[in-house]
Specification:
single chain, Heat Shock Protein 90, 9-stranded mixed beta sheet, ATP binding, 5-stranded mixed beta sheet, Ribosomal Protein S5, domain 2, alpha+beta, ATP-binding protein, 15 helices, 34% helix, ATP-binding
């Protein structure tokens, strides 16, 4: 006789929420469901809490994913929420694997998952999977809720086609997460690579992302397809010859099949392996002998330790970014990228895990793979030998410092939950001032208007008599303008090349005091705002006076 051992629904919710997602990987798992539902347009929104910016911890109040896929009826929604969805409903080349993605990814972002779907032009009810309520009742269930009139209008506006689905993640305050700045940046960087084959086919998928400050509308960012091997690049070359190397093109170093045997002893479809060798990143520097246009070409390849190694795709979807695969690609092989294309049938022999983010290769298969890839590794080394005498890459002022801040928050350590009316008023005023400052700086900026937001902006338009001036942006948080007309910049700061340790450390010090000033003005609501402005005006006058004199007296100091 069978013995029913039961289960604890609440503990299972806790377990699957901690499978190992980062916020951006969880969001992409939810996007997978939309792709599986044959969507042609998928939008992702990060909605921020009132008074919080992208740089604040736990600042997301909700996540929303909207698609125009085939939609679901009630049975489809029930199956989507079940623990271990029915695998008979998935195609052989599905991006799903164990039917846990919606629950595990959603619960890693918040405590409540809601679905509203449209099929044949009709909206469903809102179906809510609330882990807090599930824990209390100790049973898995979803709660169907009739849509209000305003919700019906909203959801019909979000899903303009005859079918589609909305996934809303709430209860994000119940999950401890770092600032969403890095989440948004990783989505912008990785979505185009992860879904390259879907974004670049004859009937291309469209993916849109945005972060919404509380009470504001922001345009979506349209994700463009991006092949990290640059196989379609106009400068891509198929045959590498050491005596004809041009020092700026990506070269094909490998195009072969890797044959594997399944657990049943039968041959599996071969895995296509392509490898591309890039010039060393140092060839994009100021002192490089290449023309400036060729330096720009090299810079766009983003050759770095994070972007080296294996880019592994499963059913057309990236599952591993820059994997060394147990040191097959070493730390020195920064200019080598290898693409592998797996199918679902390879999952078991390569031990693809439940998140579809990790895999393991046994020793015998690893040796075969190494034998195939060694030719490309040798070519990459030969290219590096030709490039090692050049300097580091050149970037515009402030960009290198900004790149160091992805995982650094900007919270006032004494004001973790400040949401007083006065604080919100001050933050709103600061954001308005920040918008004006950005427009002023743009007038004197010769850089591309499409360039990413920088946390340090060098400009001659900073307020006269100040070395720096801190501002606030409702989306990006604090940014600091540094006065290019001040003697301290002209005589000293400009001596250090962009991206050098000396420049970045100096920028970090200036940014830290600017951040402290901005947080003090906005958070210190016990003191009148006008008094604080007068205090910091005097503060900056003293800094300006002392640094001007010091710079004038010591301009002849020699660089080491």
């Amino acid at each position: 006789m069978d013995i029913d051992i039961g289960f604890n629904a609440g503990r299972i919710c806790d377990a699957i929420s901690k499978i190992g997602y980062e916020p951006y990987t969880a969001i992409m798992d939810l996007v997978d469901n939309s792709v599986t539902a044959e969507a042609k347009c998928i939008s992702v929104s990060l909605n921020l809490r009132e008074g919080k910016s992208l740089k604040s911890r736990n600042s997301v109040i909700s996540y929303m994913i909207v698609d125009d896929g085939i939609g679901m009826d009630e049975n489809g929604i029930k199956n989507a929420f079940s623990i271990g969805s029915d695998d008979k409903l998935y195609k052989n080349d599905s991006l799903s694997k164990y039917g846990l993605g919606l629950k595990s990814a959603g619960l890693s972002l918040g405590s409540k998952i809601s679905i509203v779907s449209k099929k044949n032009g009709r909206l469903s009810k809102k179906y809510v999977f609330d882990s807090i309520k599930i824990k209390k009742k100790n049973k898995f269930y979803i709660e169907p809720i009739e849509l209000t009139e305003s919700e019906t209008t909203l959801f019909n506006d979000l899903i303009k086609s005859k079918s589609g689905t909305i996934v809303l993640i709430e209860g994000c305050e119940n999950v401890n997460q770092a600032s969403p700045k890095s989440t948004l940046e990783k989505l912008k960087k990785r979505l185009g690579v992860t879904y390259f084959s879907f974004l670049n086919n004859s009937d291309p998928l469209k993916i849109l992302v945005r972060a919404l400050p509380h009470g504001k509308e922001e345009p979506f960012i349209h994700i463009k397809p991006r092949d990290m091997l640059f196989l379609d690049d106009e400068n891509f070359k198929e045959n590498y010859h050491p005596d004809k190397y041009d020092y700026f093109s990506p070269y094909l170093a490998l195009d072969e099949d890797w044959q594997l045997t399944g657990l049943d002893g039968k041959s599996l479809p071969p895995i296509r392996i392509k490898a591309v060798v890039f010039p060393q990143a140092t060839l994009a520097t100021k002192k490089s002998p290449l023309e400036i246009e060729k330096k720009k070409l090299i810079a766009q390849y983003e050759i770095s330790k994070d972007n080296k190694g294996f880019f592994i795709y499963r059913n057309g979807r990236l599952i591993r970014w820059g994997d060394a695969l147990d040191n097959i690609v070493t730390k020195d092989d920064i200019n080598l990228r290898v693409r592998m294309d797996l199918k679902s049938c390879h999952d078991d022999v390569l031990h693809v895990d439940v998140t579809k983010q990790r895999l393991e290769i046994d020793d015998e298969n690893k040796q075969r793979l190494e034998a195939i890839v060694n030719k490309a590794i040798s070519t990459a080394k030969s290219v590096r030998v030709d490039c090692q005498s050049f300097l580091k890459s050149d970037v515009t002022e402030g960009r290198a410092f900004t790149a160091t801040l992805d995982n650094v928050t900007e919270d006032d350590p004494e004001e973790n939950t400040s949401n007083s009316d006065e604080y919100l008023v001050r933050r709103s005023q600061s954001a308005e001032e920040g918008e004006k400052a950005k427009e002023t700086f743009k007038e004197s900026d010769t850089e591309d208007d499409n360039e990413d937001f920088k946390k340090i902006i060098y400009s001659p338009k900073v307020t006269y008599g100040q070395v720096w001036e801190p501002y606030y942006d409702a989306k990006e948080g604090v940014f600091v303008g540094i006065n290019k007309n001040h003697p301290f910049y002209e005589e000293f700061l400009s001596r250090f090349s962009e991206g050098s340790v000396e420049r970045i450390v100096a920028e970090a010090l200036i940014f830290s005091v600017g951040l402290a000033e901005r947080n003090t003005k906005d958070h210190f609501t016990d003191v009148d705002a006008d008094i604080l402005k007068r205090v910091f005006r005097k503060y900056h006058k003293n800094i300006d006076n002392w640094l001007s004199e010091w710079s004038s007296e010591n301009y002849s100091l020699k660089d080491e």
